[in-house]
Amino acid sequence: MLEEVSLVGADGLELVEASLVAITDQTAVGVSFPGTDPPAGWGDRVPAVGTPIPAGTTVNLVVTVAAPNGVGKAESVNVEYNDGRGASSLSGTTRYRLAGVCG
């Protein structure tokens, strides 16, 4: 079970929501932006923290982030979990950069 989801090295970026979303048709959620249609399964998402994930189940961990000042960054997402044998943590390798203008 996930016990905590957090941003590592966040500067100007906030974690708004961490959810679990079922994988539909073997497709991961991907990236969505405000104003676009939500990804498949979005309406059935559940909170990531505290929701049991049965052994052998594959789900998307979806994080919603915001940059209140229009720009922000984070080095990765860290997940702390307990698999019944003890507590562990895992940090991803995806870096996040949000900017008002790309280029």
Largest sheet: 3 strands, antiparallel
Q: Order of helices and strands, N to C?
A: EEEEEEEE
Q: Distance between termini? A: 40 Å
Count of distinct structural domains: 1
Number of helices: 0
Tell me how many strands there are. Answer: 8
How does this structure look, described?
With 103 residues, this protein is an all-beta fold. The protein has one domain. It is 0% helix and 43% strand. The protein is built from no helices and eight strands. The chain has strands at 2-8, 14-22, 46-47, 59-66, 72-74, 76-82, 87-91, 96-98. The strands form three sheets. It has a three-stranded antiparallel beta sheet with strand order 1-6-7, with no helix packed on it. Strands 3-2-4 form a three-stranded antiparallel beta sheet, with no helix packed on it. It is globular. The N and C termini lie far apart (40 Å). The model has no long low-confidence stretch (mean pLDDT 86).
Summed up:
This protein has 103 residues and is mainly β.
Which features characterize this protein?
single chain; 103 residues; mainly beta; three-stranded antiparallel sheet; 43% strand; globular
Describe how the helices and strands are arranged:
Blueprint: E1 2-8, E2 14-22, E3 46-47, E4 59-66, E5 72-74, E6 76-82, E7 87-91, E8 96-98
Antiparallel strand pairs: 1-6, 2-3, 2-4, 5-8, 6-7
